[in-house]
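Re: How this chain folds, sequence and tokenised backbone to follow
Notation: Tokens come from a learned vocabulary of local backbone shapes, not from coordinates.
Start of record: The labelled sequence and token lines come straight after this line.
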Amino acid sequence: KSFLEMEVRDYECDFQGIVNNAVYLNYLEHARHKVLREADVDFIDLAKKGINLVVIRSEIDYVSPLKYSQKFIVGSAIRKISKLRFAFDQAIFSLPDKKSIIKAVIIGTSINHEGRPQYFPEVDDLLSRIANP
């Protein structure tokens, strides 16, 4: 499991003074990329081999809003679903009170150069190394 601390920036808020719902997708994506970088996953190297990791489904429960300058933490854990699919279980909590903000499951797969899901041993090895049981 990985944790990333962040802070809400002014341009991420809507006219109500709360974080726009679409911005949470950026927070979650940034945290997922951090997890993969920490596991020495090189997106450019994979793409050169014709392997692209993509999101195919996002399930998000918006529990409570974040506001400008509020600090928060994004938790991320990866798990293997099948030979072709993996999931990131993610959550956002406000700081310092650790109030639940977002609960999300992001489903991904690997696609080939034609944009079709494909099994790649490299991705399977990666998931075996970093996924939670």
